[in-house]
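User: Before I run my own analysis I want an independent prediction to cross-check against. Here's the chain; please return only the structure tokens and, at the end, one sentence I can use as a sanity check.
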Amino acid sequence: MSYTSFRKTVWAHYKKNGRHDLPWRKTRDPYRILVSEVMLQQTQVERVIPYYKNFLEKFPTPKALATASLAEVLKAWQGLGYNRRAKMLWQAAKEVTKKYRGIFPKTAGELEELPGIGPYTARAVATFAHNDNSIFIETNIRTVITHHFFSRRRRVADTELVEVLTRLLPKGKAREWYAALMDYGSYLKRSGVKLNAKSKHYTKQKQFKGSDREARGAILRELAKGNQTQKRLTGLLGDARVNQIKFQLTKLRAEGLIERRGKIFTLPH
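Assistant: Structure tokens:
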């Protein structure tokens, strides 16, 4: 398929079937876009929407998030998983409030200097907030480019995808173009196209049941209800997983996601 034909295919799908009503598609506020990007990491769109709306009701600005306690932020995050994302957002909001007086920097390079924001997130925020002509890859985009341009290859490096994306990018329309690519990729996946395993950079997500993620989520969910003893926490998932819970309590403390005061565990304040 030629680049011209490919663009026509993507634009046509977006015009007819694009997810134009997604709440983060209706804003150019970099803070709100950052919240959406962080929430969408390893989480399905449908699950994110209600959390996104509720989170922004509680923390409508970087300053509102920065002045909240980490405990409040973690409670608002409950149910989304990967709670380190919530702490990262909170730290980024503090940095923006302190260093930039509450106004997010515009360039991907400056955004990447904020706590916890990597190359992909920085470029996505710059693109969706400021229509920046950045090049970035996420799971749906990887599926689209691999399907149309590398379907006969067994393994594909991201550098090869970047080269194609660079040639495809319609300058001045980056914001819409990436939305269209993501929506088309999502459509391909629902249609049965699953090509991310071809990527040299793809890591399959581990099963949730029995995982450390499940254990961490159980701990934080229980602490969101109030302070708890170690005995109460270690028994959350049964006798067979006591040692796993103990290990995750240690890790969560090291990451600053929980605190211990004597025999009592709490969320940070």
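Sanity check: The first strand starts at residue 228 and ends at 229.
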